[in-house]
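Pilot study result, target chain (200 residues):
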Amino acid sequence: MVQVTGRYIPREDVAELLRAGATYKRVREELGVGSGLIAATRRAYGIPVPKSNAGGRLTPAERPVIVARVEAMLLSGATYEQITKVVKISNPTIMRMRKELGIPPASPMPPSLTVDEALERHLRPAEDGHARWGGPMAGRMPMLCAGGRQMNARRIVFEQHHGRPPVGYVLTICTEPACIAGAHNADAVMRGTAPAGSSS
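Predicted structure:
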């Protein structure tokens, strides 16, 4: 059993990447978590700090995790550019993985999902009302691709939950930094940081 100490709650998805040899930077970018939580997870799960990986090549332990993430993103319709931003590997590497996985190249005009279809496909409800994003990412930003457009999924989920477009940035206000649940996110109006005259 994982022992919880301090203010950070260790997470299994963070531990999985650390076991695979992912750097703190990669974990931060993929999961949207801070270094404190990553360090706490490493300590709680007893994961040793890996030796430096010269040249940035994937380690044998890291490769299956990365291949699985690339496969999920390819199957969800993510572009090579989106995959590169999230997984930090080159286009030729993605192309090789696609061939190894037997995934045919994407059609030039893939059928477009509606916003509701994209949310149903990628929104992952979790315990205590939290929700995680299982779709494409642009850095730390969850991206919703629908109607031929790319949108900030966090803003879309906020609008569907609160019945109005958000004002300013939408930020998580719960204990899970990457939570995307509408009830667990607040815009500038709710945080009291909106400029005077903004709608509430």
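One observation from the pilot: The two ends are 45 Å apart (CA to CA). A full batch analysis is planned for the follow-on phase.
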